[in-house]
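_Full entry_
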Amino acid sequence: MQKTAAPKIQINSTNPAVIQGMKLMAQAKKQKEKREKEEAKQKTKRAPIWAVDFEGTITTKRRYPNIGEPNVSVIELLKMARLRGVRVVLWTCREGEHLTKALEWCKGYGLEFDAVNENISEAIEYLGRDTRKVLADIYIDDKSFHLWGEEGEKKLWELVQNL
């Protein structure tokens, strides 16, 4: 059932009390709209999600199937981010025994993850379904390329031309 807007009523009055009352009503309406907008925003708000690669990102070099040296600054950054509410997903090609060893290695440095190679439950709820690509606000990977504006596109075209 569709709501119909109430007709606007024009009141022409020079009475200061009526004018003041109308101003207060307009302010109250604006405050109510602002509050409703903020409540709607809070309902859809979710914690930020970061997806992070292992080889060459959490480690300093790619040494697959072995494990490289720890990238201490990234490890500490991820630990701090988690303490501040960021949900961190390990997004790696490792699987099986190699993945288990990597997770144990990370745990040894105090780094744990909210998910591994899959979406966290909040992401699935937010999207209304599970997706093959891990949903993240930020993807941290040593092989990533940022395509920002004309400069990023120009660099990408240069890469293609040099192939």
